[in-house]
Amino acid sequence: MGKEVDINRVVRQHAEMEDFFSGGFAVRKEPPAVSPLRVVDAEQAKRVAIELEKVADEVRRCRQCGLGSLRTNAVPGEGSCNARIMFVGEGPGADEDAQGRPFVGRAGQLLDKIIAACGLKREDVWIGNILKCRPPGNRDPKPDEVTSCLPYLQRQIELINPDVIVALGAHAAKTLLDTTKSIGQLRGIFHEYYAGIGHPPVKLMATYHPAYLLRSYSPDNRRRVWDDMKKVLAELGLPVPQ
Ligand code: SF4
Is the pLDDT at 55 greater than 90, yes or no? Predict the structure, then answer.
């Protein structure tokens, strides 16, 4: 029976991987055999959820940088407080600003499909950004905005304590790794994100932002993102499609 389930899973995941490379995506209906969520006791999960909501409340009231007065909604981030994977992008776009949720526009739909191709669901991970409010016209974040906003994400990472952070795009990767290297230099290998004194470093994989992938939807770029995600799955002990 167990072997039968595994074969079915491998066949489904292979189909989704093929779908990824052909430009379409399928959505998995069943969870992977190994949990993508951290096993924690109910009390601890409740405590983390309460603390994360406190951070989200602060974000929604925040006016620490100029973006606070320009937003429709702040976008604190969302997902499981027991997530082993945190996806971190650059900042909200127009759709995210309108809904107060991360990655819900076209780039978000592509991220959903990448997550599904990994055999996961959105509820299995946490998704957020460096900036919690939308820069006008989707311009690049300014250094003072990043400096003001980054502590919120740092607290979220500390609370969730993921096994892997996936930095989506150059801005997220360079900010979290405090480096000026390009995304081309950073992607494809694991780095270490330092959450602070007393906290063990968290593995960080940088890959292309889904918005960039949409603009440059070449087989090579899809292959690079997929290779990066396969390394993340392997690191977590989750099934890796061959
Ligand atoms: S971008 Fe961040 S620091 Fe600036 S107002 Fe929004 S939540 Fe506050």
Answer: yes
